[in-house]
Write a structure and sequence with these properties.
By secondary structure, this protein is α/β, with parallel strands linked by helices. The chain has three domains: 245 residues, 3-Layer(aba) Sandwich (Rossmann fold); 98 residues, Luciferase, Domain 3 (Luciferase, domain 3, Roll), CATH 2.30.38.10; 131 residues, 2-Layer Sandwich (GMP Synthetase, Chain A, domain 3). Strand 5, helix 7 and strand 6 form a beta-alpha-beta unit. Helix 6 crosses helix 7 and helix 9 packs across helix 10. The mean pLDDT is 92. It is an enzyme of class 6 (ligase). It comes from Kryptolebias marmoratus (Mangrove killifish). It catalyses: tetracosanoate + ATP + CoA = tetracosanoyl-CoA + AMP + diphosphate; a very long-chain fatty acid + ATP + CoA = a very long-chain fatty acyl-CoA + AMP + diphosphate; a long-chain fatty acid + ATP + CoA = a long-chain fatty acyl-CoA + AMP + diphosphate. Its EC number is 6.2.1.3.
Length: 620
């Protein structure tokens, strides 16, 4: 009998060895599928739980079970789960008293990356109040728009953002908006200091009855995305979607003993949902940075024993461009989670900094489809398996780049892209993968819905992104369509930039697009403009216009002056040719200008300037 058992065991080992040899990714596939099924089972349990069990409850459980565990490291200070819990209680009580907050009231957070961001949000969650996460780079018209579209009547701001609030304060006061500053005092009429009230408030726990009506489909957050056109849109993030996003860490192999480094802004879904909320789901520790610093990055990782880092393509490029050091591989980082890294940067990053499992993602805040490259295949944004496609049905369809619309057959249905062919990614809208849309913007919500895709009456979410699926089921990001470009990790709506440019007295029309720059991630802002009759391009005035009204990442660094702008047959501005031509003065006859930050003006783009940009002597 023992001989038979030995022989059977030997055959089994040979079979497994053969399978691993012929299917080297099977182990990764099986591990990911099992993790996905476990996480899906948890989400189903949370859907059915009564009373509702949310991310806040997960945090409170951690605070009870491991009160002394460090939740946040920040600039040399450590805040435990118990301390953050108490501070969030104080925030909630202070807002109850000062703002008369009640369950369901939306509060806008205009805060920098700092621990108070976390406990202010938790305090709001304890009151059952959704939070609108405002981008701290926006100003003026964009700030007012973002604030108003979520229906908030209250804004809480950091002291360093007081000037930006004061700029729009008259409008806020006209609308009856309550403005609070996280400072002990403020002499500006209409802005109430809140920090002193928080410090004096009780830190006793609050009753769960204050949020008794919160359920799995309740709105938890509003996170802003530029999308395809117009001003930023408030993507609605439900409690269910927050849970699903928090699972990304677990899906990437992060455990309860890891330390997660968050250097991305908390107003983005990456920093807030995947980073901070994901850490709450894991019950672990985050190292929070005000902003990314290439010079401090690895020292922070060593100081705090960081094991998981977060990135966008630009941050990995900055790390690879930093001076080489002998101790570059002296760290404990084992996983990097993020998106947007170029293949060459990815390869160099691994070569310089060691065997780090890069988990490249594809997702959109408002979207219903996403991918994770759980195999570390360089260049891919994900890998498709049958479990993924069952829970998140999607397809790639043929897309006409010139007309900027899907290609349809004689029956009016879309045509699926072949394997290996670039196509528009669309995710089927189902109960498991819903598309909720944007707050207060039915028109833009409808624009993202695509009907009659594979059969009459079906409904899909249009990602606006072109991807490619190869024969090995790896997914590759190819390009973005429509009126958006991405620079410095931020999505920029071209129509918003165009609106600002045409406010300049000399500019008649503006066609804004993203231009590729060698050695840089994404596309930098560029505009083709026409001038009003009798006007010359006013370098100083246009510079003042874009700097006053646009964040740095959205400002067009290159401007091309044309006699007229080309239009399509449906009167849309043509961009494809402009994008291809870029900004090389040797190839373009039109006058070209460059935004020179040191001189605080636009200057003519000479061959010498162009070479300096191309060689990266000039930092963009």
């Amino acid at each position: 009998m023992s001989v038979w058992l030995t022989a059977a065991a030997g055959l089994l080992l040979l079979l497994l060895s053969y399978i691993w040899t012929r299917c080297p990714l099977l182990r990764d596939d099986c591990a990911y599928i099992l993790r996905s099924l476990r996480l899906g089972s948890r989400l189903l349990r949370y859907r059915r739980s009564r009373p509702f069990y949310g991310i806040l409850d997960r945090f409170l459980d951690s605070a009870r079970r491991r009160p002394d565990r460090v939740f946040i490291h920040f600039e040399g200070r450590a805040f435990t789960y118990a301390e953050v819990d108490r501070r969030s209680n104080q925030v909630a009580r202070a807002l109850q008293a000062e703002a008369r907050l009640k369950e369901g009231d939306t509060v806008a957070l205009f805060l920098a990356n700092e621990p108070s961001y976390v406990w202010t949000w938790l305090g709001l969650a304890k009151l059952g109040c959704p939070a609108a996460l405002l981008n701290f780079n926006i100003r003026s018209k964009s700030l007012l728009h973002c604030f108003s579209c979520c229906g908030s009547k209250i804004i809480i701001a950091s002291p360093e953002l007081q000037a930006a609030v004061e700029e729009v304060l008259p409008t806020l006061r006209e609308q009856g908006i309550s403005v609070f500053l996280l400072a002990d005092s403020c002499s500006t009429p209409g802005i109430s200091p809140l920090a002193d009230k928080i410090s004096r408030a009780s830190d006793e726990p609050l009753s769960p009855e204050l949020r008794a009506n919160v359920h799995i489909q309740s709105t938890a957050l509003y996170i802003y995305t530029s999308g395809t056109t117009g001003l930023p849109k408030a993507a609605v993030v439900t409690q269910e979607k927050m849970w699903a996003a928090s699972f990304v860490q677990a899906a990437c192999g992060v455990t309860g003993e890891d330390v997660f480094y968050v250097n991305l802004p908390l107003y983005h879904s990456a920093g807030f949902l995947i980073g901070m909320v994901g850490t709450i789901e894991r019950g672990t520790t985050i190292v929070l940075k005000r902003k990314f610093s290439a010079s401090q990055f690895w020292e922070d990782c060593r100081k705090y024993d960081v094991t998981v880092m977060q990135y966008i393509g630009e941050t990995l490029r900055y790390l690879c461009n930093s001076p080489r050091r002998e101790n570059e591989k002296d760290h404990r980082v084992r996983i990097a989670i993020g998106n947007g890294v170029r293949t060459d940067v990815w390869t160099e990053f691994l070569s310089r900094f060691g065997d780090i499992k890069v988990r490249e993602l594809y997702a959109a805040t408002e979207g219903n489809i996403g991918f994770i490259n759980y195999t570390s295949k360089i260049g891919a944004v994900g890998r498709v398996n049958f479990v993924h496609k069952f829970f998140f049905p999607f397809t790639l369809i043929k897309f006409d780049v010139e007309k900027e619309e899907p290609v349809r057959n004689s029956e009016g249905l879309c045509i699926e892209a072949a394997t290996g062919e670039t196509g528009l990614l669309v995710g089927r809208v189902t109960r498991r993968s819903p598309f909720i849309g944007y707050a207060g913007n039915k028109q833009q919500t409808e624009k993202k819905r695509l009907r009659d895709v594979l059969e009459k009456g079906d409904l899909y979410f249009n990602t606006g992104d072109l991807l490619r699926l190869d024969h090995n089921n790896f997914v590759y990001f190819q390009d973005r369509v429509g009126d958006t470009f991405r620079w410095k990790g931020e999505n920029v709506a071209t129509s918003e930039v165009a609106d600002i440019l045409t406010m300049a007295p000399c500019i008649s029309e503006a066609n804004v697009y993203g231009a590729r720059v060698e050695g840089h991630e994404g596309r930098i802002g560029m505009a083709a403009v026409t001038l009003k009759e009798g006007e010359k391009f006013d370098c100083a005035d246009v510079y003042k216009q874009v700097v006053n009204y646009l964040p740095a990442y959205a400002r067009p660094r290159f401007i091309r002056v044309q006699s007229c702008l080309e239009m399509t047959g449906t009167f849309k501005m043509k961009k494809v040719k402009l994008v291809e031509e870029g900004f090389n003065p040797a190839l373009i006859q039109d006058p070209l200008y460059f935004l020179d930050s040191e001189k605080s003006t636009y200057v003519p783009l000479t061959d010498e300037l162009y070479r300096a940009v191309a060689s990266q002597e000039i930092k963009l």
